[in-house]
Amino acid sequence: MDKKTRVLNAMDGKEVDHVPVGFWHHFAGKDEKGEGSVKAHLKFYHDADLDMIKIMSDGVWPVYPDEIKVPSDFAKVRSGGAKGSYVQDAVDRAKRINDELQGECCTFFNVFSPSTLLRMYVGWEKGFDFMQQDQAAFQSALNAIADDNRELAYRVITEGGCTGIYASVMAAEVDRFPAEVYEELIKPSDLPAIESANAVSNYNIVHLCGFAGIRNQLEIWKKYRWALQRNP
Question: Which of 27, 168, 181, 197 has the fewest CB atoms within 10 Å, counting from its CB?
Answer without folding.
Answer: 181
